[in-house]
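Subgroup meeting minutes
Present: P.N., E.W., G.H.
Scribe: E.W.

1. P.N. recapped why we're keeping a running log of single-chain structure predictions: easier to compare across weeks, and new members can see raw inputs and outputs side by side.
2. G.H. added today's entry (151 aa).
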Amino acid sequence: LSDLEEDTGELNKENMWELSCETVREQLTNSIRKQWRMLKNHVEKLDNQVSRGHSEAWNEKDVISREDHELETEKLELEIQQCKEMIKTQQQLLQQQLTCDDDTTLLLQDCYLLEERERLQEEWRLFREQKKNFEKERKSFTEAAIRLGLE
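Output recorded in log:
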């Protein structure tokens, strides 16, 4: 761009922007065309290999027997079934753990409620004790007031 700016000192910035966009557009188009040609050539090579493979005689070691194929398929199906069972087992264990967590939470809540109840019982006991002391003081004060009134 600096060389272009020196050569075209009279062009304003908008013309420069349009010119650079054109250049980038052309480069991008050329790059896409080049990649498309490479992909096309690659696909043609693969087609040629497949057609050569079908036209040539297959070696016995290149071909998998139908029985081997069926055995392998059965093995894979068995493995899939085992994986499904394992997933079900994991889901069940996870669900049990969640219910155990719920049970644990309930037990903890029960423990907290029990502690709260014991604390409240202790406060009630202190309250009754203070009430007794207050009643004794009131009774003593009343008796002292009556004695003072008689004197």
